[in-house]
Amino acid sequence: MAEIQKTLVLLKPDALQRDLLGEVIRRFELKGLKIVGLKLIRLTDEMLTEHYAHLAEKPFFPSLKQFMMQTPVVGLVLEGLDSVESVRKIVGSTNPRNADAGTIRADLSMNVPSNLIHASDSPEAAATEVKRFFKDDELFAYEKITDRYQFGEGV
Ligand code: IDP
Ligand code: MG
Questions:
Q1: How many domains in the chain?
Q2: CB within 8 A of 35, min separation 6: which ones?
Q3: Residue 8: inside a domain
Q4: pLDDT digits (tens, 9 = 90+) for 118-154
Q5: Which ligand gives the minimal distance to the CA of 95?
Q6: Cβ(123) to ligand 1 under 6 A?
Q7: CATH code (residue 143)
Q8: Which residues contact 67 (CB under 8 A, 6 or more apart)?
Q9: Among 70, 82, 84, 143, which has the highest number of CB atoms less than 10 A from its own CB?
Q10: 53 in a domain, yes or no?
Q11: Catalytic residue among 117, 118, 126, 133, which?
Q12: Nearest residue CA, atom 27 of ligand 1?
């Protein structure tokens, strides 16, 4: 049974530098995901050490953190049916050269760490990551006239 979920997306410094913020957000809008949180965030070393804890032992960890601090990132919270999995599918796999055509990473990028986007990889991670980057009063609940088609039974 599908459920309405929130998921956390970060548009990385390469998306900002390459003027792709609008294009990437447009892809999520076209899917019908609802933007319930949106802001610029200046990431700190401390935030990144927590966020990328699973990569702490990798040789590229320091340069990954440097990359993520080059400019502010755009934080997005997207709501939709099974949005965690849907967003990961639209984003594509980590290495853009292996990602399926049609995904954002495959269509618009070709390198790591510059693969444009972070997206939560499980409902548990999404809950933790939304809280990590957004305060409760930065999340908005509102109705769109399309909700019945996108989230309901379409009648
Ligand atoms: P994900 O972003 O697809 O979930 P993770 O394995 O969680 O992938 O890695 C987080 C981020 O770290 C990647 O999106 C990418 O920017 C960077 N990264 C992953 N592997 C490498 C690597 O081998 N070299 C440099 N950067 C990497
Ligand atoms: Mg990840």
A1: 1
A2: 25, 28, 29, 76, 77, 78
A3: yes
A4: 999 999 999 999 999 999 999 999 999 999 999 887 6
A5: 1
A6: no
A7: 3.30.70.141
A8: 12, 13, 14, 113, 114
A9: 84
A10: no
A11: 118
A12: 113
